[in-house]
């Protein structure tokens, strides 16, 4: 795919200047060594656009709202934002059902607003990543409108169709047992073409047929449209399910039913097909041809760390730059042994690829509520933040995570907006709880909107829990995140250093060092238990030098400095970040004093 020359209008020139500021650099954005791509150690902030900031009073967030909050994002210290879909859409799946991949839904703004966002974000050293939904369209996309009218038009083959089977009484049945991840059969019959189409998600989201080269061309062109505008990359929605088994074979039943009332299946024919990897390799070739180290992030839910390797392209490193690592982050058990095992696996099983650690997103109950025990929630949130921001990984933060925003699932079915929650009620309440408006301040609607009818109600705790209050409190979770991001930026060891696990058999405390290439050492100890614990950090036998452990950040506040090799007492759920320093040689100290 060839890149078109930059356009010559005034706006394009401005954008081009902004884009040049976004090329990889060490100095301007200060978060990556010159030789490394900007994304490798980045902190990426997910903006769930509908719930971030409403600027026009319609109760739904929008692009001007994001622009309004850029100073806040800059002060947080993040490197990039990922915007959830803003494309024209009937909003059945709140934007993940796209009618036009090259435009902006009027409820979110205009292309002009988007260009302004790119420029304003670039001025603050923030790159913009888009959500790109390659797996499916909306049923209202012109391709599907055509495709479902006639089997003879070229668009028909843009989707996955089957004649299905006949039942004992001649009734029409779907071709196989595949279920939609959002409930029910994954097949929908269209009388006009006498065919079933496949939909991995809602029936209003028909899956594209990626075996058709015209689909690939059209979707790559759609991505090029945004790349040429200056986006720094994409978060690829639902990427693991791009292609399905050509023979449409039944998937094995695992036994039992899921929360939506469907049999649990082993998705061996609808996920992780070899041809999906081939598409991603071509996509990687396409995106790498653009200047500025654009990035491909993947929505990759896998059960084991090692399974992520294939999504990077293994030793070839020629698929996704950053498949999301949700292996431990989307769990609910604060378990030092499990986290340690995962950090080791991520360092040893991925052919040196960089992990992208994720604890929260718009589809999962917030980590505050998953990991919290109801008593030590605030301390646990600090542990998670320290683990996230000091691990050897790029980082994904979800809006509100930095202030400890809570999940607030609907109380009654009448309140539910996510169709999955309507279908699955009460066992599966849908995803409204983690998508409620961002809590900015104590004013009506938490400062999110001037309209009392926000699309999802604001969570009732906003007068006490909001950005403004946390900004004013130096001990807040927000400042904890700001400090951690700032230290990650300041210390090479924390950002790009290698990982050395310490005290590896401790059942409750996860301890590790990050070591920069010039030998600076930073230390992290996380007591993941409700009891006080003692650790002994034998740096020497781990091949590290240094004796004084100087506290940089700790919770509870003011944990004292310590000596390597001596027992260190950690209160319940303590989080401790320390810099390792050599004790000055007595002669040198005396000389310095003379
Ligand atoms: C991804 C999105 C989710 C959406 C689904 C279907 O999982 O994160 O919100 O519903 O894809 O597009």
Describe the structure.
- It is a single chain.
- The chain has helices at 10-21, 63-68, 70-76, 111-123, 142-147, 213-229, 274-288, 309-312, 336-348, 367-371, 377-390, 419-424, 467-472, 477-490, 492-496, 586-593; strands spanning 43-47, 80-83, 127-133, 161-162, 165-166, 172-173, 187-190, 195-198, 233-237, 253-257, 263-265, 295-298, 322-325, 356-358, 394-398, 498-502, 509-515, 521-527, 533-535, 548-555, 562-563, 568-570, 575-581.
- The chain is of the alpha/beta class and 594 residues long.
- Helix 6 (213-229) runs parallel beside helix 7 (274-288).
- The radius of gyration is 25 Å and the shape is globular.
- The protein starts with 9 loop residues before the first helix and ends with a helix.
- The structure holds alpha-D-glucopyranose.
- Residues 93, 96, 133, 201, 237-238, 299, 362-363 line the site of alpha-D-glucopyranose.
- Alpha-D-glucopyranose binds next to loops.
State the low-pLDDT regions, or none.
1-8, 23-32
Strand order of the largest sheet: 1-2-3-9-12-13-14-15
Which bin fits the share of residues in helices?
A: 25-40%
Distance between the termini: 69 Å
- The tally of beta strands, per DSSP, is 23
For the biggest sheet, the summary is: 8 strands, parallel, barrel
Spatial extent as radius of gyration? 25 Å
Envelope shape: globular
Proportion of β residues? 15-25%
What is the count of DSSP helices, taking H or I runs of 4+ residues? 16
Give the bound compounds. alpha-D-glucopyranose
**Overall mean pLDDT score?**
93
The structural class is alpha/beta
